[in-house]
């Protein structure tokens, strides 16, 4: 059955161009020009992936609001911000809202399709049958890889799909430094360095909110990151 992608974009020409391109790749596409119409549709049925512009008509932050609403409905739904606003503040805000990726509209269609495919490859692992649940335990950390569930001191940690696989890449070899490229390769991502940094910061913050003394995700300047047991 074809995957369903929701495209929330207020520019009619852009909406049409990307709809055609996505349909040519075999995806079903649902389009929305504003947040209210998308919110109504998502309350009835969720897509398999959502691509959202930040500014939606009169709502300059409409995409951020929609992302928050989607995250309340599903923690695992892949969400991509696709916007002309290219600055660190918007990027970090978008990722903190729970998006899995943040892309600017000057990227190539091939690049966008590669990131969509990478997100779908990760979510496929959720649906794959597992005879045995793979568990990773390191101190207070417990990761159920098969179910993509994480707990710290027995308290659930709400990670996005991207954050989960980045954490998994770090904890496979505790103490070993993972470069940004290795994190991309092992967590099946296609993102740039600034996006990796934003994901790490957001993931670290989620652990610190549960445990202020948390200090297990180290930044090794000039090299990458590691999980310090």
TrEMBL record:
Q: Which residue spans does the record list as DNA-binding? A: 133-229
- Which protein, by its recorded name, is this? Proteobacterial dedicated sortase system response regulator
Q: Where is the OmpR/PhoB-type domain?
A: 133-229
**Positions modified as 4-aspartylphosphate?**
53
Please name the InterPro entries in this protein's record: CheY-like_superfamily (IPR011006), OmpR/PhoB-type_DNA-bd (IPR001867), Response_regulator (IPR022305), Sig_transdc_resp-reg_C-effctor (IPR016032), Sig_transdc_resp-reg_receiver (IPR001789), WalR-like (IPR039420), WH-like_DNA-bd_sf (IPR036388)
GO CC annotation: cytosol; protein-DNA complex
Q: Which residues are in the Response regulatory domain?
A: 4-120
Please provide the record's keywords in A-Z order: DNA-binding, Phosphoprotein, Transcription, Transcription regulation, Two-component regulatory system
Q: Which PANTHER family match?
A: DNA-BINDING DUAL MASTER TRANSCRIPTIONAL REGULATOR RPAA (PTHR48111:SF21), REGULATOR OF RPOS (PTHR48111)
Q: Which GO terms describe its biological process?
A: regulation of DNA-templated transcription
Cite the GO molecular-function annotations of the record: phosphorelay response regulator activity; transcription cis-regulatory region binding
User: What top-level branch of life does the organism fall under?
Assistant: Bacteria
């Amino acid at each position: 059955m074809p995957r369903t992608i929701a495209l929330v974009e207020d520019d009619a020409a852009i909406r049409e161009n990307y709809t055609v391109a996505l349909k040519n790749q075999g995806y079903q596409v649902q389009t929305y020009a504003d947040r209210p119409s998308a919110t109504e549709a998502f309350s009835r049925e969720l897509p398999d992936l959502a691509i959202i512009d930040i500014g939606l008509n009169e709502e300059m932050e409409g995409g951020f609001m929609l992302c928050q609403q989607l995250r309340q409905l599903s923690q695992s739904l892949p969400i991509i911000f696709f916007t002309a606003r290219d600055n660190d503040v918007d990027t970090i805000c978008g990722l903190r809202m729970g998006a899995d990726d943040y892309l600017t509209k000057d990227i190539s269609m091939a690049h966008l399709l590669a990131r969509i495919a990478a997100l779908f490859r990760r979510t496929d692992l959720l649906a794959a049958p597992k005879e045995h649940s793979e568990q990773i335990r390191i101190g207070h950390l417990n990761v159920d890889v098969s179910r993509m569930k994480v707990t710290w001191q027995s308290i659930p940690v709400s990670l996005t799909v991207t954050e989960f696989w980045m954490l998994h890449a770090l904890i496979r070899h505790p103490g070993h430094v993972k470069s940004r490229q290795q994190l991309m390769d092992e967590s099946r991502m296609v993102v740039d360095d600034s996006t990796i940094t934003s994901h790490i910061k957001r993931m670290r913050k989620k652990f610190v909110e549960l445990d202020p003394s948390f200090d297990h995700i180290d930044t090794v300047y000039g090299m990458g990151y590691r999980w310090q047991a």
